[in-house]
Amino acid sequence: MQRRDFLNTLAAGAGLVIPLGRHAWAATSAAPGAGTDAGKNSRKLIVVMLRGAVDGLNVVAPVGDANYARLRPTIALARPGDDNGALNLDGYFGLHPALAPLLPLWEQKKLAFVHASGSPDATRSHFDAQDYMESATPGVKSTADGWMNRLVAALPGATTPTRALSIGPTMPRILSGRAAAVNLANGAAGTKANVLDRPAVGKAFDQLYADNPRFGAAYQQGQDAHREVMDAAAGKMNGGMGGMMSAEMQAANGGAPLPNGFPDDAARLAGLMRNDPNIQLAFVALGGWDTHASQGAARGQLANRLQPLGQGLAVLAQRLGPLFEQTTIVVMSEFGRTARENGNGGTDHGHGNVMWVLGGGVSGGKVLGDWRGVGDADLNEGRDLPVTTDFRSVLATIAERHLLLSDKQLVQVFPSLPRGGRLDLLRA
């Protein structure tokens, strides 16, 4: 085995990513145009990706539109106040009852939704659509990096190995690129000691690579990142899969786990972010949303996925404590699902969807976006919600108003960003 391959294998086993070669980390260098504004660095962003295309029409359901129940005779949510009915949001839209743990955030105006949002690209391929949302370049497959990786480079302040963190089986597309990023496994294994934590083994590797002109810097940065995460997990710094899935659903998940274990991962993530102020960006991917059959209404397959998701987001908000006031959490999925249920009691690949935005600075308690209804004449190609708000406009609004990026930096993170389209999503 090549020495480079061995290092990468060892790093992956440790839950870290150490890019070697011409794109090796420059973890201690300042980002282009970086400043030292501590207030800017204290602002956090967490992105939760629902792989498989969640049904936004049953997450935030237009229960006030008679066409909704007509199009979904067996899977539509009942109106608020009825048995197993939706939770009232504004008299027209209702929240899926499995997401009841999030209702207090809505009432506190720290949760908002952007309906009929998504990618302008028309693909209904999970793989292409996820790629476009993670690169933020819809229709362009040749983009080399993910938008969160570009965001690391654009943020003010010195870049550290743990500034961007992912929780999942592998480093996601959204964080791939030149900037440093750390990937932790799901569950408690992500913060367990590895073989290099054994003093004798660690000392041997230190002697082998410490002064190596080619691999030394990358090795040391990987070790530093690992120790920082371990310290944060131990609180030393300041400051599982259930159910059955079809082969198609597993493929749509892209390796992401079902949300069953998300509450525990959310608690761990909150602890890491509280204990390690260097962690500014985080990403989590969850699978199981490709509900072509037996989707259910207030109960069933979708509800079983939404319940731990809602619980996990509520845990994350609670465990972040005062840090939640400086944090914005975005939940998104590659596209929505058909407005009309299919013959199997499920929904097929659609277009427009709903994005969720939570946080202390969110101007919440409202459903935003250019909503046109679900009448036959209002649907895209007669079957889906149209995309009336580009997902990049939502992300750019957060990057500009929450992370305080300049116009020049926004273009670096989101090339070909649509003109205008900023939303009244965050408080001034």
TrEMBL record:
<dbReference type="Pfam" id="PF07394">
    <property type="entry name" value="DUF1501"/>
</dbReference>
<keyword id="KW-0732">Signal</keyword>
<feature type="signal peptide">
    <location>
        <begin position="1"/>
        <end position="26"/>
    </location>
</feature>
<dbReference type="InterPro" id="IPR010869">
    <property type="entry name" value="DUF1501"/>
</dbReference>
<protein>
    <submittedName>
        <fullName>DUF1501 domain-containing protein</fullName>
    </submittedName>
</protein>
